[in-house]
Write a structure and sequence with these properties.
Order of helices and strands: EEEHEEEEHEEE
Strand order of the largest sheet: 4-7-1-8
Number of helices: 2
Length: 124
């Protein structure tokens, strides 16, 4: 069953490091797996190309010697009640990170529960 989310929602942005793990599994993968099992509407993992955190040390892909522990953002969107219910799972697995919650307006464009919208073009 495909769930579509439109209207007001809550976006959770989780900032962690690419080297962070939970029981020998990359932390971002563990969060993504838990979000899917919790039935959250959607999640995306993005690897940053440059950043710094609490210790003010810049991590960048521009210099090979500084390309470790790059920032990872996990973006999850769903209804506020479902996002807030998911927070205890994050508290269990995140040792060092930041979670940001903000209200967003969601608009799904071009897709329905049956696939591409009528009139959309597909490549052959």
């Amino acid at each position: 069953m495909t769930m579509q989310l439109t209207g007001t929602a809550l976006r959770m942005t989780i900032l962690i490091g690419e080297d962070d793990v939970w029981q020998h599994t990359p932390l971002h993968r563990e969060i993504l797996t838990r979000a899917r099992k919790a039935g959250l509407a959607g999640a995306t993992v993005v690897r940053g190309c440059e950043g710094y955190g609490l210790h003010r040390m810049i991590h960048t892909t521009r210099m090979l010697s500084m390309a470790d522990h790059m920032p990872i953002l996990v973006l999850i969107i769903d209804r506020p009640d479902k996002i807030r219910a998911f927070l205890p799972q994050l508290q269990e697995v995140i040792r060092n990170g930041t979670v940001i919650l903000d209200n967003v307006d969601v608009m799904t464009m071009g897709w329905s529960t049956l696939g591409p919208a009528a009139g959309s073009r597909t490549e052959n």
